[in-house]
């Protein structure tokens, strides 16, 4: 499987954005691409699997976060625990603090890949600012609050949810050794050193 992750930096490189997309999808041809600060051209959705969300609903900027598959089915698959956590912040959260806009900051989906089957994929764009402290006033953040961090960043509850999935085996992948390659992740076991 070829996996690419790339912060395309649309806001600073908009003039070469189309060229970057062509290079990524026509030349590099990853099975799955996890992209941040991007604006997919219209042809991407026509030719590939695409999940995309604009990062900020209030800034007027067009860029956001995307998952793209080349030649493989891709379906939107929300992260229910994280969505419930964000929903508990209140209906005004996404308008008040774009760090809580999951569709634009960490879209998630399920890609069906040869030899692996259905795989959960998440493209994370952690904003350069914390979640508005006022939104967290009545929220227990003790499970994931980092001791040295002043506030809570989007990645904090996201990774706490991911740890829970990993412990239950939901994010594990069948060993490649059963498919003729080296193992990458096995249920209940970390990857063996090379």
Summarize the structure.
Helices cover 27% and strands 20% of the residues. It has helices spanning 10-13, 17-28, 42-47, 80-87, 93-96, 102-105, 155-168; strands at 3-7, 32-38, 49-54, 64-69, 74-76, 108-113, 117-122.
Radius of gyration: 18 Å
β-strand percent reads: 15-25%
Oligomer: single chain
Structural class: alpha+beta
Mean pLDDT: 80
Compressed to H and E, one letter per element, the order equals EHHEHEEEHHHEEH
The coarse overall form would be globular
CA-to-CA gap between the ends? 19 Å
Q: State the major sheet.
A: 4 strands, mixed
Roughly how much helix do the residues carry, as a percent range? 25-40%
Number of strands: 7
Question: Strands, helices and their partners?
Answer:
Elements: E1 3-7, H1 10-13, H2 17-28, E2 32-38, H3 42-47, E3 49-54, E4 64-69, E5 74-76, H4 80-87, H5 93-96, H6 102-105, E6 108-113, E7 117-122, H7 155-168
Parallel strand pairs: 1-2
Antiparallel strand pairs: 2-4, 3-4, 5-6, 6-7
Summary tags:
single chain; 194 residues; alpha+beta; 4-stranded mixed β-sheet; 3-stranded antiparallel β-sheet; 7 helices; 20% strand
């Amino acid at each position: 499987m070829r996996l690419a992750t790339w912060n395309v930096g649309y806001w600073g490189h908009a003039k070469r954005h189309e060229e970057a997309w062509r290079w990524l999808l026509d030349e590099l041809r990853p099975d799955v691409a996890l992209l941040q600060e991007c604006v997919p051209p219209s042809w991407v959705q026509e030719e590939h699997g695409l999940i995309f969300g604009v990062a900020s609903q209030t800034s007027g900027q067009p860029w956001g976060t995307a998952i793209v598959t080349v030649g493989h089915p891709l379906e939107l698959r929300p992260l229910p625990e994280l969505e419930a956590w964000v929903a508990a912040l209140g209906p005004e959260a996404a308008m008040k603090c774009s760090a809580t806009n999951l569709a634009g900051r960490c879209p998630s989906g399920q890609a069906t890949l040869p030899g692996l089957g259905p795989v959960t994929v998440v493209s994370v764009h952690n904003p350069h600012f914390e979640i508005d402290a006022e939104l967290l006033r009545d929220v227990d953040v003790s499970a994931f609050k980092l001791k040295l961090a002043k506030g809570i960043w989007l990645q904090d509850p996201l990774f706490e949810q991911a740890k829970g999935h990993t412990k239950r085996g939901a994010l594990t992948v069948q060993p490649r050794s059963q498919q003729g390659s080296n193992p990458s992740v096995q249920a209940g076991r970390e990857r063996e050193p090379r």
